[in-house]
Amino acid sequence: MVPRQSSLVCEAGFDFTRAMRRLCNDLVSRLDELRHIDMERVLVSYAQARSRSLHGLQASLMPLRFEGGRTYEVRHGQRWEIERIYDEQGREFLYILTFYLPRFLNHSFQEKLTTVVHELWHISPQFNGDLRRHEGTCYIHGPSQKAYDTAMEALARRWLSLDPPRETHAFLHSSFSELRARHGAVFGLRVRRPKLVRVPPTPA
Predict the structure, then answer these.
(1) d(Cα 164, Cα 23) in Å, to the nearest integer?
(2) Could you say which DSSP state residue 76 is in?
């Protein structure tokens, strides 16, 4: 499956996913904690939020491998794989990073930047298509969601202290309606969520 570009309005104006990819590239190049990430294998996309409320999902990171980076998982005796996604050169993506518009863009600058760092942090240090896993039952955020959020905000502020080019994050200072008014439209890459595919047994 090769992703295609689509738009909330039309395919002209402000390219949100291109701008987000440039921001992510700078984040992973400056922060040692994120240097393991190869953004060429992270598909940056957007999805349309079901409501315009500020409450709800702002962003998500979908791993395209199972625990430990395995390419398949056995459930109830059946082998399952995640549908593969490739770029135009045939290179396979390991993650899908999705932002929900317009909701994401309607938060404060610091909240938006922290959300981006938050999602990138979820990528496994092994960069194997799995999530970063903490010890215990709350393996996604660790034992304290509050401590996790505080750490992500501090990491975002540290990146800003490294004086990245303003053009990498200028768009985060605008709301969705401001970007659309300025550019005429907001568009970008939109990806269908990959499916779990049952793999038939190999004939004996």
Answers:
(1) 9
(2) T
Say if residues 173 and 111 touch (Cβ distance below 8 Å): no
Tokens of 176: 């969705």
Helix axes 109-121, 145-161, angle to 10 degrees: 110
Q: What pLDDT is stored for residue 199 in this prediction?
A: 85
Cβ proximity of 43 and 86 under 8 Å: no
**Which helix (DSSP H) or strand (DSSP E) does residue 59 occupy?**
strand 59-63
Kindly list the distances between the CA atom of residue 174 and the CA atoms of 26, 77, 152, 156, 182, in Å, as whole numbers in the listed order. 19, 50, 21, 18, 10
Distance CA 194, CA 44 (A): 14
Instruction: Tell me how far apart the alpha carbons of residues 118 and 141 are, in angstroms, rounded to a whole number.
Output: 10
Q: Answer whether 0.70 is exceeded by the pTM.
A: yes
- Asked if residue 9 has pLDDT above 50, the reply is no
Number of residues that this document lists for the chain: 204
- Quote the CA–CA distance of 86 and 81 in Å, as a whole number: 15
Residue type, 3: P
**Bridge partners of residue 82, in order along the sequence:** 196
- Give residue 3's pLDDT: 57
- Cα dist. 22→3, 40, 41, 165, 169 in Å? 18, 11, 14, 11, 9
